[in-house]
Amino acid sequence: MHVTNPIRPKQIRDGGFNRSLKDRHIQLIALGGIIGSGYFLGTGEMIHLVGPAVFLAYILGGIIIYLTMLCLGELAVAIPVSGSFVAYSSDFIAPEVACGVGWSYWLSWVAYIPAECVAGGIIMEMFTGINGYIWAVVFGMLITYFNLAKVEAFGEIEFWLALIKIVALLGFVILSILIFFGLIHGNQPHQPIGLNFLFHKGGLLPNGSMALLTGMVLLLVNYQGSEIIGLAAGESRNPERVIPNAIRNVTLRIIFIYVIPVFFLVLIFPWQKANLNNSVFADALNFYGLKWAGTITSFVTLTATLSCANSGLYGTVRSLNALAREGMAPESLAKFNHLGIPKNAVFFTLAAVWTLLAFGYFFGQSKLYIALLLLSGFTGMLCWISLCWAQINFRKRLKIQGYSVADLKFAAPGSPYTAMLAIGLMLASLILLLFNNDSIFIVSFAIGLISFIVPFLVYKFFNLAQRRQHIIERQQRIKFEDLFPERTSSLYSTKPIDLNRTQEECTSLDRV
């Protein structure tokens, strides 16, 4: 990549993407990216693992994602760019970290997209009796079609799919309240339920508190996708207005949309009956004779698989495109067609998704589903950590160059402590995977760590020329005088770089 001119705020590395996403698209994209089958279907596995206290785990997960999104919001408003993980990690941590994070994020969604297809297959097999793998292939074909459409079509598709899920969850809460007070009871006793299901037969944590902690990565997969707000920043028409609104409003809605339905779920449904064979929300409604509502909920789970996989592929394609623009992936993946779609990156990602889906034919659907979720959660969390880390370094440079928090159009409150808290909670969640008795958790930890370490080492030790060029270009491409036109200080030193410096001297430029 060669930089010849100063980069102005409206030009900051949008990568050539078509800026056609509207405010309502951005906010619903964020919701669509997280309310997937991992919530409607995977919550059953979490309840089985943790017990009724699963709603407390969702609260903790909401805190983690809120802190992370504050960091992302500050970066995305100051420097709106598609493929934010790669760009921010490269500029504010180190190019090799950006390479590792970028490929980890790509793998995170490559693993999650077929997991959504498998989830759709599980639901459809229950309805039709036709092998779930066949349905998984059908869903894969639909996702392929959606992401070959132009960006405007993507936004409209995701908007309506996300809206269906939100309405369904609100409907579930209303029915749950009626069930809780005994107004709907089916074959169950005609009386208020009280707290019987919440505290009896083992209490809130029947499997012990460690189950809550070691299962946190599996739960946090449900919040994965919120960062797509930042990935879409390069395609937002007005990032400084749209992104803060998305951070403030969508993140709070996420917490309420997740926590409240799950709380009512464990109030009205015995945790021992939760499983992975159907949506646990549908099972809860069926338990009280509401077969019609259970059927609708299962249908909504299908739309959730399409919505989450759709927005997930959107995010990972743009992340891969950013890797290519940074010289960390083949150059051909950085090219766009006349519609502003990175077709090569789309095809490459789809090939990987279909490969995983093909391997899935030889494994049990439920086991494969959980394995893919764990791998996706681990690698996705590495990317969240990088966002918080990059925001901490961004603030350091802000201060060094003579600027203050008041110069930012959106500032993460409590920085750097909010970012440090988020990093600490996420690192603890990752490490505790090793203490789970199920070997699939440990295997997912190993594969996830390898997915970061291998590209990190390859870029650091076998791509020295490209890495050196990154360090040099980083001195030029983003200046505070461009981010804050009324001020004159530069983010980076304008002193010429000696191309004959040793690698060690160049490496020191990353450490701010």
Structure description:
There is one protein chain. The chain is mostly helical and 512 residues long. The chain has a single domain (19-468), classed as Up-down Bundle (Amino acid/polyamine transporter I), CATH 1.20.1740. 67% of the residues lie in helices and 0% in strands. It is built from 22 helices and no strands. α6 runs antiparallel to α19, α7 (132-146) crosses α15 (291-325) and α15 (291-325) crosses α16 (343-359). The longest helix has 36 residues, at 365-400. The protein is globular, with a radius of gyration of 23 Å. Mean pLDDT is 77; it is low at 1-19 and 488-512.
Helix content: 55-70%
Q: Whole-number radius of gyration?
A: 23 Å
Mean pLDDT: 77
CATH class: Mainly Alpha
CATH superfamily: Amino acid/polyamine transporter I
Spans with pLDDT under 50 lasting ≥5 residues? 1-19, 488-512
| Number of alpha- plus pi-helical segments | 22
What's the N-to-C terminus distance?
23 Å
**CATH topology description:** Amino acid/polyamine transporter I
How many domains make up the 3D coordinates? 1
Fraction of residues in β-strands: under 5%
Report the order of strands and helices: HHHHHHHHHHHHHHHHHHHHHH
Shape: globular
Sketch the major β-sheet: none
CATH architectural designation = Up-down Bundle
The total beta strand count reads 0
Q: How is the secondary structure organized here?
A:
Elements: H1 23-34, H2 37-40, H3 42-50, H4 54-78, H5 84-92, H6 95-128, H7 132-146, H8 151-180, H9 196-199, H10 209-214, H11 216-220, H12 228-231, H13 239-268, H14 280-287, H15 291-325, H16 343-359, H17 365-400, H18 417-431, H19 439-462, H20 464-474, H21 480-483, H22 503-507
Helix pairs in contact: 1-8, 1-13, 1-15, 4-13, 4-17, 4-18, 5-6, 5-17, 6-7, 6-15, 6-16, 6-17, 6-19, 7-15, 7-16, 8-13, 8-15, 14-15, 15-16, 17-18, 17-19
Subcellular location: Membrane
Keywords: Membrane, Transmembrane, Transmembrane helix, Transport
Organism: Legionella israelensis
